[in-house]
Specification:
The protein is mainly α and 412 residues long. The protein has one domain. The mean pLDDT is 87.
Length: 412
Amino acid sequence: MIKNDAVVLGILMLILGGIFYTASLDTKSWKRFYSIIPPLLLCYFIPGLLNSFGVIDGAGSQLYPVVSKYFLPACLVFFTIGMDWKSLAKLGPKALIAMLTGTMGIMIGGPLALWIVGSISPQTVAGEGPDAVWRGLATVAGSWIGGGANQTALREVFKPSDVLFSQMVALDVLVAELWMAALIYGAGVASRVDKLLGANSALVEDVKLHMDSETRLNERNPQMKDYMFMAAVGFGATGLSHGLAELITPFLKANYPQLEKYSLTSNFFWVISIATLIGIALSVTPARKLEYSGASKLGSVFLYVLIATIGMQMDLGAVAGNLGLFAIGLIWISIHAVILIAVCKWLKIPFFFLAVGSQANVGGSASASVVAASFHPSLAPVGVLLAILGYAIGTYGGYLTALAMQFVSKSL
């Protein structure tokens, strides 16, 4: 068993490097492999295998506490600082309606799926304290509205057990990848789907031309000063968030102890909330130009390090402990899909906005850009843009969904 965290970090980075290298190879065997096993799943599960087989000591390592404390808030700042409100407005109301309808589908679908499965099989959703299923589902809500950073934030707020969280990671990734595969298939027959929706795809062509010119106009190679500015902004915001949270949390605990049942006395809730608000505020200042130098890419690096440190705490033997949880996930994503399709049919919204708006919620920036690019490569930034909006609202939307699931769980 390797207990030296410096060695463990080196192993995790080699794993991440190996996954991204092989995923980038243009060979049939690797393409076929990653079409079945998504890279994100490996980023969780290979470190999980090392922990499950006793190679590393996930429970005793201090890597996750350090990474979640310093990297996670900075990661959220890097993701939200690039919010381009003008470009978002130019996408038109249909893009935003599809995105926010997808969010509402997740917020409604979670509590409803929990109620349906709990009514049929109470033992599936049983559990008290850290093993309460709703606590684990809260992390899925954060992931499916925002992304991995929001998922980790809500994990720290609601604190599900490690066993339960391992099951939720499997539910999250497998169900989300299944839905992503369906959306990519739909991209191949988008014209037929648009006819069923009664939508005009000419709007998508206009968006494609705008985003292509926007990307070519602003993207540039980062310089040393850009990286230093990014570090200053990301970690400066992280420090400010921790400082303010240390003032807010004791005040609430002393004067409003009843807020504890809503997790509003959690120090980490305020750290993440403040960091996200700082990122959003900076997106309307010249600091937003850091996105053109790769702020969100740096955020993605931090996020994958975070994912690997989460994975090293997983006990993969626990994943199969409650397969009924996958029924919740499948019902949940189905409710999301039905609500989204119904609204897009009603408002004649093109399938492109349906697919990318959904994936910006469920999958985050990486998979949203993949789905967008499956329509046309120049449309990939649309996925990133909508996903940034998801990161901005993911923690708050996931938090409200968690409270609704807590209420449903108590009523069962």
